Amino acid sequence: MRPLQPPLTFTQNLESYRSLLVRCLKGSFSYKSTTINNLLTTLVAYAITIMIWHQVYQQNPNHVIPSTQMYVYLLLAGAVNYAMSLGMEFRIGQRIRTGLIATDLLKPIDFQMAQAIQSISDGLFNGALSFVVFSLGFFLFGTQMLPSSPSAFLLFLVSFVLGFTVIYGIGFVFVQGAFYTYSGYGIFAARNALQFTFSGFSAPLDYYPPLLRTITDYLPFRHTIYTPVAIYMGWVTGPAAYLLLLQQLGWTVGLFLVGKFLMGRALKQLEVQGG
Amino acid sequence: MKTLKLYWLAFSTALQAKFEYRVDFFLGVLTSCMLQLSALVSLWVIFTQTPNLNGWSKEEIILLFGMVAGALGLSELFFNHIWMVPFYIVMGELDRLLTYPVNSLYFLLITRPELHSFGNLVTGLVLSYWALYHLNAPLLYYFLLPLFLFSGCLLYTAGLVLFASLSFRFIAPTSMHLMIPHNLLNATRYPVTIYPAAVQWILLILVPFGSFHYLPASWLFGKEPGLGLALAVLAASLVFFWESGWFWRWGLKQYESTGS
Amino acid sequence: MENALHVENLAKSYKRSMRHPGLLGAFKGLFSSKTQEFQAVKGISFSINRGERVGLIGENGAGKSTTLKMLTGIIAPTSGKLEVLGLLPWKQRRELALNIGVVFGQRPQLLWDIPVRETFRLLKAMYRIPSDVYEVTYKEAVRRLDLEPLLGTPVRLLSLGQRMRCDLAASLLHAPAIAFLDEPTIGLDLTVKEQVREYIRDMQDKFGVTLLITTHDLKDITEVCDRLLLLDKGTLLFDGSLKAFEKKFANESRIVADLERPATASALRKLSAEMKKHGGIVTGGEGHKLIVSYRKEGSAPVLTQILLKRQKVADLTLEKTDIETIVTRIYRKKPGKN
Description:
The structure holds three protein chains of three kinds.
Chain A: H1 10-29, H2 32-59, H3 67-83, H4 88-98, H5 101-106, H6 111-141, H7 150-181, H8 184-198, H9 210-217, H10 226-233, H11 238-269
Helix pairs in contact in A: 1-6, 2-3, 3-6, 3-10, 4-7, 4-8, 7-8, 7-10, 7-11
Chain B: H1 2-18, H2 22-49, H3 58-79, H4 85-91, H5 94-98, H6 104-110, H7 117-134, H8 139-169, H9 179-187, H10 197-206, H11 211-220, H12 227-258
Helix pairs in contact in B: 2-3, 2-7, 3-7, 3-8, 8-9, 8-11, 8-12, 11-12
Chain C: E1 3-18, H1 22-29, E2 34-49, E3 53-57, H2 64-72, E4 79-84, H3 93-97, E5 100-104, H4 116-126, H5 131-144, H6 160-172, E6 178-182, H7 190-207, E7 210-214, H8 218-224, E8 227-232, E9 235-241, H9 242-249, E10 253-259, H10 265-277, E11 280-284, E12 289-294, H11 300-310, E13 313-320, H12 323-333
Parallel strand pairs in C: 3-7, 3-8, 5-6, 6-7
Antiparallel strand pairs in C: 1-2, 1-4, 8-9, 10-12, 10-13, 11-12
Helix pairs in contact in C: 5-7, 10-11
C-alpha cells in the first residue's frame, strides 16, 4: 500500500502555483477574438468618456485640471481599470451554481490562493493589453503622457501593484456573496457599479461634489484607480504619496482577512447544487 | 394571431422559470439600479464643472438617461436571450432551436427574459417622467413616451442581433462584443451633438440608437427637428428590427456550413 | 411505399482550426490559426420508406451525428442530394420541423426550471397539435412512460432517467412522420431502457412513425428496428435488414463442449479429421473444453453426433453469433484503427 502523503512543502506549493499560473495564462491566450472584442469594447467606452469631457473643456477651458492633463488622466484611469478587470465573481458564481465548486475545494491547493493566482494571470494578461491603450496616449498627447518624475513613476508602479491587491481583496469579499445568492453575475455587477462610482474611473475625485468625495474616502475603491494615477500625474508627492501606499497596504491586508473569515463562514453553509 | 399567442406562451413560460430564483430577481434589480445610479453620478460630476452641455441642461440630459434606461429595460425584458447566442454557438446548443417549426430568431429572442430588466425599466420610467415634469412638457409627450421607448428597444435589439450574428462567423465564447452596441447605446445618454461628426453619423444613421430619444427630445425642447421626424423614428425602428433578421439568416448559413 | 427520405452521395466536411502547442503557441494563436479540412461524411446513399424502423450505428466519430444533423436541416451538406419528406431540410427547415421529432439524448429540450407539464403545453402550441391527436399522444406517453408523478416537478429536480423519458415524450407528442432519435437510451438503467423501447415501438405501431435511431446500445436496434445502417469513418459499410446483416457477417456458429476428461492428442487428431469432412473445424482443445466451429447452416446435428460418439461429453452448448458480437468484431478488425 502507498504510504500516506505528508502535507506539501513550501517549494512544492510554489511549484503547483507556478504551473497553475501558466495554465491560466494559456487559457487567456486561447481565444483571440474574445481578447480583441474586449479591447475594442473598452476603447469605445473610454472614447465616449473622453469625448464628453472634451465638450466640457471646449465650453470652458478654465478648470482646476488643465484639459490635456484631464485627457491623460482619463486614458490612464482607463488603462489601469482595464488591467484590474477581474472576472472572479462571474467565474466562481458559475462554478457554485453548477456544483463544480466542490471539485475546486477538494484540490490540494488553497482556494483563496488559487483564486489569487487566476487573478494574477488575468492581471498580467489584461495589464499587457492595457499597455496598448496606454501607448495610444503617446500618439495623441506626446510627452504630456510621461510621468511627472522618475520617482513618481516608481511610486506609481508600487501603487499599481497595491491597487491590484486591493481590487483582488474587494473581489474576493464580494465573491462570498455568490455562495449565498448563487448569482455570480449579480455580485459582479454590484461590485462593478461601486467600482465605477467610487474609484475615479470616469473623472478625477478632485471634481467630485464634497458629499461624494467624503464617501469615497471611506471606501477602498479609490485606491484601485485614483491613487496610482494621481501619483503618476504628480498630484500627490512625497510623504502624502507614501501615506497613500500605506493605506493601500492596509486595505489589502484588511480585505484579505475579511475574505478569509467570510469564506470560512460561507463554506459552512455551502450546499453544492446539482449534486 | 396563433403565432402571437405562441410567442406569448413561450415568453410567459420562460418568465415563470426565471421567477424560480427569487434572490436573482432582487439582486438583479438592485444591481441594475446601482449601475444606472453610477452613471447618474458621472453626470452629476460633469455638471459640477459646467452649467450645461452644449446647450442641454441637467434635466434635459436626465430625460435622455431615463429613455435609454427604459429602452434597455424593455429589450432586456423581452429580447435578452440574444446575449446567450455566442455561448450557444460554441456549445452547439442551437441545434435544438433549429428543430422547432418556428422563426428561430424571434423564438430565441423571446425565451429568456432577464429579471434585472425591471430595475432598468423602473429607473427609466421614473427618470423620464421626473424630467418631463420638471421640464413642463406638454401632455402629449407623456403619452408618446412609451412609444419612443418601444422604438428604442427595437433599435437596440436589432443592433444586438447584428453583432450576435457576427459570432457565427467569428466564433467567440463570450458575448463581449455585444457590449459594443451596449456601449453605443450608453453613449446616446448624452446629446449626440457633443460628439465629433463621424460619431454623430454612426449614432444617428448607421446604428441609429441615438435617434429614438434624441430626436423626440430635441423636438420637445424646440431644438430643431419636428414631431414628424420624431415619429419617423418609430417607423425606422421597425424596419431596422426587421432587417436585422437578414444578418441572423446570414449567420445561420455559416452555422449550417460549419456545424459544431 | 411512400418515400420518407432519400440521400444520394451525401458528403460533409468541416474545417478545424489547429492549435499550436505550449504557451508560445497559444500566443501565436492570437494572430494566426491554421485550419485543416476534415471529412465527416464521405458520400453516402440510402433511402428510407415511410413507416420503416431503421437503426444507424457506427463508432464514435463515424459520422452518425453529422448525418442526423443534415437530415434534420441543422447543417447543410457540402455536396450530394438530400430530401426528407419531399423537402430540402436545410432550406426548408421550418416546414420540415413540423413533421419530424428529434431527440438528442445528450441535449434535452425540456425547460430546466419549470414543471414538465409547461414544456408540453408550449410544444402543443408550437407544433399546432390538434387536441384530439394531443389527447392520444399525451395519454400514451403518460401511461407508457409513467410520467404522471413527474409532470408537476421542475425538470432540474428529475433524475436522468426521468428526464429522458419526458424528453422522449416531448419529441413525439405531435406524432411526427419521422422521428430522429439520437441515443435515446444513453445513460439509462435496464428497466428504463426497456420502457423507452416499448414506448417507441408502440408509437410506431399506432402512428406509423418512421424511425431513425442512432445508438451505441445494439439492443435498441434488435428490439425496435428491422433495418440497419452501419457507418464507418464516413462511409456506409452496410445497409439492409437485420437478417441480411446476420447472414453477411455472422457466418460462423460454434459448438462448445465440456468433456468429462481431456482428449488425448491422437483422439483429437482423429476427431478433427472426421469433423473436417462435415465442414466442422476444431478450434480449441485444451483441457476439458472443446470448441467446434462451422459455417454451413444445418451442420449442427451431424457434428454433434460425431462429437458425442467420439468423446464423453459432460455438457454442450450451441452458440450463434449475435449482432452485438458481430459489430464488436467488425469494429475490432478494422485496419488502421487508432
